[in-house]
Amino acid sequence: MTMESRKLQFTGRSTYVVSLPKAWVRERGLKAGDRVLIEVTESGDLLIRADASRVEEPRTKSLDISGLSPRQIERRVVSAYLFGFDELRITSRHRILPDQREAVMNILRRILGTEVLAETSHEMVVNDLLDFKEISPRSILRRMQVIAEFMFKNAVEAFFSRDRELAKDVIARDEEVDKFYLLATREIIEGIRRAGRANIDVPPEKAVHYLSVARSLERIADHSVKISSLVGRTPPEEVAGELRKLYAEVVENFEKASRSFFSGDVNLADAVLDARDKLQRMVSSLLEQIEDKPGTIGAFTLLDSFQRVYAYSADIAESTLDMNI
């Protein structure tokens, strides 16, 4: 944070004037005649923001995919999406090959708010239809949390009950979490870019924690898919009973971590982190029971996912502490 000194001037009969730093004005694309918003804080200080209602020029990005492989194209489209655009023009010096077009369409199916509005043999025009002002990173993370928790609980239920249909439903929902993860990442980056020009619920100094929570929720969803793929490998009943007890501890801490983040409750966050030793003892005991026993491959994999889900829950709790201490 930089601080500059400006002399207060008196003009006319009743107006006090202070000049704004030129670099600040340029960074926000302001010009003479534009409005700024002045807010009086609780401490009596003044907070100056660029007017969020000021009309901005549409951002157009160009992407030349000539000679690129489908994977390279997918990576570049995702990068463009995360950085933000109003219009993305995908072009080729020759013609867009069928596998290149399919790569574009494949990645667009995995991100929210985009649509191909025009297409020729040499160009695809993709528009971003979401309005930044109508969606917030916090609401996106809340939606991610609801889906990830649903997936985790149903994946474990499918595993123990051998319910393949329920497992398929969990796997199908992973794509939805991935979409929200990319959207959350993009909106947080956009919020930082627009700092001072829009009312966002993620201050720049907290953005890294929101990104961490989004990543943790996305990883928990991934492990739910992994657990769902184990249906049919149910371990011996004596081991299954202990795994159920561990699951109860893990899901409780996942729920506590989520509540701590959205409510800012540091006591709940501490409770999650304080559970680490208890969970580690339970894991060690289970490892001793299943070591070298036949038919326990599924148990090993499930145990690993439980450990990872708790670790990501602890990361969420740590983010809560970092933002509220």
Describe what is shown at a glance.
With 325 residues, the chain is of the alpha+beta class.
Structural description of this entry:
The radius of gyration is 25 Å and the shape is flat. It is built from ten helices and eight strands. α2 packs parallel to α3. Helices cover 58% and strands 12% of the residues. The mean pLDDT is 86. The strands form three sheets. It has a four-stranded mixed β-sheet with strand order 5-6-8-7, with helices on one face. The protein folds into three domains: 9-50; 60-130, 2-Layer Sandwich (Translation Initiation Factor IF3), CATH 3.30.110; 134-324, Phosphate transport system protein phou homolog 2, domain 2 (Methane Monooxygenase Hydroxylase, Chain G, domain 1, Up-down Bundle). By secondary structure, it is α+β, with helices and mostly antiparallel strands.
The biggest sheet, with number of strands, parallel, antiparallel or mixed sense and barrel status, is: 4 strands, mixed
Proportion of beta-strand residues: 5-15%
Stated plainly, the CATH topology of the largest domain is called: Methane Monooxygenase Hydroxylase, Chain G, domain 1
SSE succession: EEHEEEHEHEEHHHHHHH
Strand order of the largest sheet: 5-6-8-7
Shape: flat
Task: Figure out the total of helices.
Answer: 10
